[in-house]
Amino acid sequence: MSATAEPRPPHRRSEEYADLFGQAPVIFAALSGPDHLLEAANSAFFETFGIAHEGIGAPVAQLIPELTRHGNLHQLDGVYGTGIACRARGWRFVHGGLGAEREGYFDYTYEPRRDADGQVDGVLVIAVDTTAYHHAQLLAAEQRILLEQIARDAPLDEILNGMARAIEELSPEMIVSVLLADPSGKNLRHGTGPSLPDFYNEAVDGIAIGQDVGSCGTAAHLRAPVIVTDIATDPRWADYRDLAQRAGVAACWSTPIEGMDGRLLGTFAMYHRTPKAPEGTDLALSAAFARIAALAIERHRTMEAGHAAQEREKVAHEDLAFVLDASTAITREPHYFDCLQCMARLTVPALAPLCVVHVVERGKTRRIAVAAATRAEEDLLGSPALRDEIDTAVARVLVSGATETGHVGARPDGLSAQRGINGYVSVPLATRGRTFGVLTLLSTHRPLDGHVVALAEELARRAASSADNAHQFTDRVQLSRDLQAGLLPPELPRIPGATLAASYHPAGEGLDVGGDFYDVFPLPGDRWALMIGDVCGRGALAATTTGMVRHTARAAARLLNDPAAVVAAINEALTEGDTSDDCFVSLVYGELRHAASHLALDLIRAGHVPPLVRRADGTVEELAQPGLLLGIGPDTDGSPCSVDLYPGDGLVLVTDGITEARSPSGEFFGEDRLADALGTLRTASPTAATLVESVTAAVSAFAGDSTGDDQAALALTAT
């Protein structure tokens, strides 16, 4: 007799989807039928593709017409028709109407959804938006190439042309131009504009710096970005409107390029062929490449200036090396707080003798890192008065989002009035338009000049991005751990006459949900079921299979008074339907009952690590009843093995992550060492917790803390 699950009605499915994916950062949608009707989706799906919630029930191709053009509809048809999942990484998707196109990159999986009879009745879409990561990687690579060109003293025109070409490749709708301030500071000269017509570059070569002189002349005059969204109507382009029309440009956003000492070096402009307002990413791109252009231009002028400029060249080289090395070191830190603490250490004494880092957490500001060149200066940071002054400055920067500096005599009641402090700079740590912390440098000797401030701002920008990435990494790890915890019983039950204990140790960083699991649950007739198993693979498929095995076992065990029948029901659930996905499972399943003077246990083993019984006298027995892995074929060949546990006897079940743990030399821990770890216990009647601890301690001593596979252990002792 086997248990057959009732088909879940759509509203139940929607509730389950909402529970699983409603607030998840992944993009989720459930499509039903051959027309792929949108049955359910989470907020991330609607927001990403700009679809109203009223779209539920409509064909997804109608809601997102671009799916047909990009070939996704064909993929969905294939998944629905064949039952074979479809996966892709780094998929480029452009959606939106003319003039409002949006480009995105996604990792996605199309999984077939099956009804109770194993027939495909829909497709589940799970995707992760990797656009920011993709663009960040491309942008970082281009920036690094340019920085390396600057470091090796490449010609200025080569750097600027390369920068313009790189941006235009990253954003094909943009046209880039750089104008250089001439020595008089009154005019702008042609720097680069490889995609602009020659007549246009010649016409703007030498334009005056002043009010209402196009975008670039005005930006250079105001020393502030000038955004012109429609050249045809903007008065600042009155004298150049015909020229722009001939060149085929309709919008221009210009940013002044300033040196570390505040001198005007030129302007960085991005043109569009249609009227357009910039987005936040456009402004960030402009600011980033304006800074690189500033480095390149200053490097060039330094080399041209002769002996006096050679010293400035050395400083620029050191600054560049410092920023690159510091950025690399900070990026290597995988965790949020470690990134910011590394930043604090790197600033001392390179930028200042004292550093303090604050962050906002849950609405409260707290100090998370300090660094000092000497112990005496570190003690100075402990001064209550100085702490209050720093906190006040930090609060202002968190509100304004702008760098704040102070010097001796500037504010008699400020930080400079504290003993030994003659200057400070507080730099915001911001990402994605949000200021989440402040980097504060304090000087005890020379004041902090604009050069130090600029380096601190650049370092803070890079560190903020790395810390934000680390924060998202930590959140992803926590999400995986939470999902893994949901696949394990929240706590082990109490069994009269027995003690229970379990251990679970995930492999690596815990980014993917593992396939190891265990469970103990009551059965009718004062019986108990226990099991341990391992699903091949990791991630979503392993999690789904793990949940299915546990739920099938719990349902079947209550109906079938036979361990072999329960295992057969699990195998049937794994093998039903037509799928190419490997769903192999190793398992030990047992049912426990109370006898007159002991515990009686019937176990069945399906391709799993053999169970071990430790007797009260210290001897260890292996229950070697073999059986095939589940999910391979329709039949199971295992037969139950009966074992009696008297007071002091214990049963130990482990997954192969323990027996296959490797030493530094590559040797397996093995089943013999597992038995030795149990047999050498000095305790006459160890508890289940003692048995588990002896196993985990032995594995840790043999292989260390780093594991290549998940490790799970479950122990039961008779009392």
UniProtKB/TrEMBL annotation:
Key word Hydrolase present = yes
Origin superkingdom: Bacteria
Per UniProt, the keywords (alphabetical) are: Hydrolase
Xref: InterPro entries: Bact_Sigma-Reg, GAF, GAF-like_dom_sf, PAS-like_dom_sf, PPM-type-like_dom_sf, PPM-type_phosphatase-like_dom
Residues in GAF domain copies = 155-307
The PPM-type phosphatase domain is annotated at 498-718
Q: Does the keyword Hydrolase apply?
A: yes
Recorded hits in PANTHER family, A to Z, give: STAGE II SPORULATION PROTEIN E (PTHR43156:SF2), STAGE II SPORULATION PROTEIN E-RELATED (PTHR43156)
Q: What is the protein named?
A: SpoIIE family protein phosphatase
Q: Which organism is it from?
A: Streptantibioticus ferralitis
